[in-house]
Every structure is written in structure tokens, then in C-alpha cells.
Amino acid sequence: MTPNHAQPHHPRFHNRIAVVTGAARGIGRAIAVELAREGAAAVVALDVLEEDGRATARLVAEAGHGAGTQGLFIKADVTRPEELEGAAAEVRARFGRCHVLVNNAGISGRHVGDGPVHACSPEAWERVLAVNLTGVFLASRAFIPLMLEEGGAVVNIASDDALQGSLPPNDTHAYAASKGGVIALTRAMAVSYAQAGIRVNAIAPGWVATPMTADIRSDPQVAARLAGASPLGRIASPEEIARAVVFLASEDASFVTGAILPVEGGATIW
Ligand SMILES: NC(=O)c1ccc[n+]([C@@H]2O[C@H](COP(=O)([O-])OP(=O)(O)OC[C@H]3O[C@@H](n4cnc5c(N)ncnc54)[C@H](O)[C@@H]3O)[C@@H](O)[C@H]2O)c1
After folding, report:
1. Is 223 helix (H, G, I), strand (E, B) or coil?
2. Which residue of 13, 49, 147, 148 is surrounded by the most CB atoms within 10 Å?
3. Confidence check: pLDDT of 26 > 50
4. Which ligand 1 atom is at minimum distance from the Cα of 132?
5. pTM of the model as a whole
6. Is ligand 1 within 6 A of the CB of residue 173?
7. pLDDT tens digits for 144-166?
């Protein structure tokens, strides 16, 4: 795909089919809606949460009303290869191809017993790695074959926790390692798929106001600390992450691959 400078107002995702994992809520939902606002032909939301996933599909159709965007929810757990293969088969049957894959599904280590290595159970380690890292591998494995024909873009959601250490209660080492793995995988995939016309990049968000962080944000003291973790002095909205994802997925980033873009209000520079 080459940049389209002749028609600057052409929707950036015209005729594009996009798949977003973990799109039932939070950042994934914002990404799905943003892709629809940018005129995607279809946005497929994958998640384990059915009701919220269907709500995302409806929001996608609303946001992409002008462009006729189709919103589709497919229930799939990113730790289960057979469910992802089934989802990919459904996307192939309906649309025949896929241009954008956003690997966003993830869990916080805090909620499953993650912590500094001496306090992290082997089960917590396995679970966090299974969703956050193996999930990226399995979803890519299922959907890359649909992207090979026409090319496209993969955007993986890492974290600034992979770029710097954190103090308690966020010193969740399985989480940091899983996101570090996502960064390594992003770079490896970027090289392997470059000649096939598939760019592969990652976003490293800082703190974002989503259901994942609702528990710690509810404590005003912790909320103030999270806001103070970046020079910009606040946490991000899901839409601020979504806009960066959409940039990397679009032809505006046609010469960007293997990049890890921090979207963290500058948290990693001080
Ligand atoms: N919120 C933050 O501060 C923050 C910061 C850095 C990175 N991230 C990353 O951004 C991504 C999205 O996070 P969020 O804050 O929107 O979280 P969230 O918990 O609000 O949403 C995550 C979504 O992923 C889905 N999901 C979880 N496990 C799944 C599985 N096995 N299969 C399919 N779907 C699954 C959930 O059902 C949910 O809909 C995650 O990868 C997260 O690690 C978040």
C-alpha cells in the first residue's frame, strides 16, 4: 500500500478490514471506535466479554455510520489457539482478508497475584504471560495469513512498564516481562513481515483511565501519584492511546515499522 497524498480527505481506513483484540472495553473499545470514525469497512472486536463486546460492535457501527462501517463481535479468548483460528476463519469467510490487527487484549498483574519476583506465584506468572504475550503470538499467528495478500499493519499494545521499573503497588514483574516480550516480538515481526508489506509497531502507554486501573484510581492519594508520574501531570484517556494506534495502523505511518512509541505523557524521560 502506498500513501494517498492526492486525496487528503479520503478516510484513512477506506476499504480496510480491522481486528482489535480485547475490544469490549477500555483502550480496545476506543481503538475500534476510532477505526470506524476513520472510515474502516469493518471493525471486528474480539473479546471474552460478550455483552460489552456486542456494545462495542454497536458503537463501531454508529461511529462509522457515514462510511457504512460494519461492526462485528466475535467471542474469542486470546489464550486459546482454536478460538482464534475460528475467529480468523469467520473473518475470512465474511471479508476474505484483513488489513489491520491490533493486539490489545491484556490483563493487569495486580489482579492475579503478580508482584516482585519473590512475591509472584508461578501461576500468576504463567497467567500474565499467557494473556499478554502468548495472546499476541496466537492472535498474530491466526490473522497474519489473512494479511499477507494485501499487506497491512499490526499494532501491539505494550506498556511503559517494559521501559522502566515501577514502585509498589505497580512492581508487577510478570506484567513488565510480558510487555518486554511484546516489544521484542514486535521488532522480530517487523523485520520478518516487512517484505510482505506488513508493518509491525507497538505503543507503550503510561497510565490510562480504563476499567483496568479503576481500582487504584479510586484512592485519591494513589490517583494523585499516578497523575504525577508524567511531566504532563495527568493520566491519559483511552482515546489518546487510540489516536496513536490509528496513526501507526494508517498509511500516514507508511515508513514506520518496528517502532515502540511511548504514549505516556513523558513518564519515561524523567
Ligand atoms: N490502562 C492502563 O493504564 C494501561 C497502561 C499500559 C498498557 N495497558 C495495556 O493496554 C491494553 C488494554 O488495557 P485496558 O486498560 O483497556 O484494560 P481493560 O481491562 O479495561 O480492557 C482489557 C480488555 O481485554 C480483554 N481481555 C482480557 N483477557 C482476555 C483474553 N484472554 N482474551 C480476550 N480478551 C481478553 C478484557 O475482557 C477487556 O475487555 C492491555 O494490553 C494493557 O496491558 C493499559
Report:
1. helix
2. 13
3. yes
4. 41
5. 0.96
6. no
7. 999 999 999 999 999 999 999 98
Q: Is the pLDDT of residue 5 over 90?
A: no
Name the strand (E) or helix (H) holding 45: strand 42-47
Residue 88 has pLDDT above 70, yes or no: yes
β-bridge pairing 198-205 and 70-75: unpaired
Give yes or no for residue 22 CB within 6 A of ligand 1: yes
For 45, half-sphere exposure in the C-beta direction (CA atoms, 13 angstrom radius) is: 35
Catalytic residue, chosen from 143, 175, 193, 207, is: 175
Distance, in Å, from the CA atom of 89 to the CA atom of 92, rounded to the nearest integer, reads 5
Residue 55 Cβ inside 6 Å of ligand 1? The answer reads no
Handedness of CA 135, 137, 140, 145 (dihedral sign): negative
Which residue from 129, 127, 78 is spatially nearest to 101, judged by alpha carbons?
A: 78
Task: Using a pLDDT cut of 90, give the percent of the chain over it.
Answer: 94
How far apart (Å, rounded) are the C-alpha atoms in residues 142 and 144? 6
Q: Are 107 and 132 in contact, with CB atoms under 8 Å apart?
A: yes
All domains of the chain, ordered by start, with CATH?
17-261 (3.40.50.720)
pLDDT for the residue numbered 262: 98
Query: Distance from the CA of 240 to the center of ligand 1, in angstroms?
Result: 15
Report, as an integer, the average pLDDT of 71-92: 98
What mean pLDDT comes out for the span 97-110? 98
